[in-house]
Every structure is written in C-alpha cells, then in structure tokens.
Write a structure and sequence with these properties.
This protein has 219 residues and is of the alpha+beta class. The protein has one domain. 37% of the residues lie in helices and 16% in strands. It has eight helices and seven strands, in the order H-H-E-E-E-E-H-E-H-E-H-H-H-E-H. It starts with a helix and ends with a helix.
Length: 219
C-alpha cells in the first residue's frame, strides 16, 4: 500500500493530497497497515475482524476490521478504529484511537451468541445466512491473530459447500475455536497449536461469489 502511494506521489503521506494520487482501501487494509506500522515501531498491535456499532446507540453492528494495540503505561489492549470517523465526532465523547469495548462485537462473541441464542444485538452481514457471515469473520479473526490477515473472499476449503452442510461435530469444533478466540491472550498456545496442526482451518480457497471480492474486482 505504501509503495502504491509513493508511486502516485513521491511526497508520501502529506496533507491535502490530490484525490487522484490516493489509493482506495477498505477497513481491512487500513487495519493491516496500522498493525504493520506499530509493530515496526516495537508496539504490539493486532488486527481484529468483527462487527462495529457505527451509530453509537447499540442498534446495529456492521462487519468491520479494527485494531488492538498495547498501551504499556496502562497495561491493556486499546481498541482503535483507524478507518473510523470518531476523532471528528465530539458528540460521541471519545477518540477512535481508544474506543469503549461496547462499540465492537468480536467474531467469537457473535458466533457463540448465534449458536446459543444469546446474542441480543442486530448484526448487518453481507450474507443471507447470518451464521455463514459470522463464520467468515470468525476465520478472518483467527488468521489475523496469527498475523495472516486474509482477504474477505478467502475461507477454509472445507466450508465451501456451506455452513449448513456441516455436521454437529464440525459445528462443535467451530464453537471450540470461538471459545479460544474469546480470550486470545489466555489461550494463545492452544490457538497456535490449532493454527499449526488443524489443516482444515488453514487450507484456504478463494470464494469468488463473496460480495467483497466482486466489489473490489470492479474498481
């Protein structure tokens, strides 16, 4: 992304940059770039895929990528949305670089909530089947935590026939993955073992029917 920006304008990141000299990115690319910049500076940072409340009223949560970076002074992960607009919305009363946790529903919370019937939040997903859409984000979040921030259209090969064709045992495996991702720091070693040993979670295919893929292909 940075190479593309520099090819268009060697001045780099400047104010009032000509719009014809910019590149178009999604929230995923913005999140990945922010993670890379902070990690290069020695600041732990990770991309997270889930669902964001853009209206701040808790009425609806849309598919979105954000970041968590480590605040050494406060010893905590700070939730940030570098693709957001909250820095310029004083009415919200907080910065997009330190968001309240209520703003973001993790993919694991959404998955377990749907499976158990305990999710009392409206999710706006680009899939006719909410569980299918949340499953896509569950794997994007899983891979992002392993520093492999996959594109929207890439999903495990074994899911290509659809979530509703999975056995209850296979759905239970996804429940287990979601439970681990709900506490990524406490379960780091177990998540890494899944990443290394469970091939069906890591062998991916490009689903060309994915709405995001079709959208970006046309740009």
């Amino acid at each position: 992304m940075i190479a593309g920006i520099l090819r268009l304008d060697g001045a780099g990141f400047t104010k009032n940059r000509d719009v014809t000299k910019r590149i178009t990115v999604s929230c995923r690319q913005a999140s990945v770039l922010f993670s890379a910049i902070l990690k290069a500076k020695g600041i732990p940072c990770r991309s997270r895929a889930g669902f964001m409340d853009f209206g701040d009223a808790g009425k609806s949560y849309m598919e979105h990528w954000v970041n968590e970076y480590w605040d050494f002074g406060e010893s905590r992960w700070v939730l940030a949305d570098v693709d957001g607009y909250y820095e310029y919305e004083p009415r919200f009363g907080y910065s997009q670089f330190d968001l309240p946790r209520r703003k973001f529903v993790t993919a694991s919370e959404a998955w377990l909530g749907l499976r158990k019937g305990t999710l009392h939040k409206k999710l706006d997903v680009f899939s006719s089947d909410p569980l299918e859409g949340v499953c896509e984000y569950l794997f994007m979040d899983f891979h992002a935590l392993m520093n492999n921030e996959i594109f929207y259209s890439y999903q495990p090969l074994y899911l290509r026939s659809g979530i509703r064709n999975l056995s209850e045992e296979e759905l239970g495996e996804l429940d287990g993955l979601a439970e681990l991702l709900a506490e990524p720091d406490e379960n780091r070693e177990r998540i890494e073992r899944l990443w290394q040993d469970n091939e069906k979670f890591s062998i991916l295919t490009n689903n060309t029917q994915n709405i995001y893929y079709d959208t970006f292909r046309q740009l």
